[in-house]
Design a protein that fits this description.
By secondary structure, the protein is an alpha+beta fold. The protein is built from four helices and six strands. The chain has a six-stranded antiparallel β-sheet with strand order 1-2-3-4-6-5. It is globular and about 40 Å long. The N terminus is likely disordered.
Length: about 170
């Protein structure tokens, strides 16, 4: 089943406060491109309902704006679907194992896209070991580990919560 839609993003109705598909500067509070052609978007998810589809749609809009979608080749389509799947897994983990996600942050340059999901949880995400492919649940971080170039957790000293980040290679 494809995770990309056959129509342009934005057909879900109005976006939550803080999200914008029209202007990267408005969505991120930063210029659309900084040194090295890095593009950035962020959206507050705290207090929103339906955060997983909201995060996927927000990410899909960014991928359209950044030229990843519509995909011209199967490899480019697969790369975009991998990004959407990683976003889904990280946001879902924040919902299940923390107090819900606070923010989704996306950054992209010509080589890498970085996904960050911030939450107020104290847990430490890790792939389940041993991984049991036939059992339901517990596959999120295993999927992230398999699809990403690298991933990790950042905690701010003296502050509650964490940011789980993952980096994926840009399509060739």
């Amino acid at each position: 089943m494809s995770t990309t839609r056959p129509y342009p993003p934005g057909d879900r109705g109005p976006e939550p406060s803080g999200a914008s598909g029209a202007s990267e500067a408005a969505a991120s509070g930063m210029p659309p491109a900084s040194s090295g052609g890095r593009r950035v978007r962020r959206v507050r998810l705290e207090g929103e309902s339906g955060v997983v589809p909201l995060a996927r749609d927000f990410t899909r809009q960014a991928l359209y704006a950044w030229g990843w979608l519509p995909a011209a080749t199967a490899d480019r389509r697969a790369a975009a679907e991998d990004v959407l799947l990683v976003v889904s897994e990280l946001v879902t983990n924040a919902c299940l194992h923390a107090e819900g996600p606070d923010e989704l942050f996306l950054a992209c340059d010509n080589k890498v896209i970085r996904v960050e999901v911030s939450d107020r949880g104290s847990g430490q995400p890790a792939p389940r070991t041993p991984h049991r492919a036939g059992r339901p649940g517990g596959h999120g971080m295993f999927i992230v580990q398999r699809l990403c170039l690298d991933w990790g957790v950042v905690r701010a000293p003296g502050a509650a919560g964490k940011t789980v980040w993952a980096e994926l290679g840009a399509p060739a």
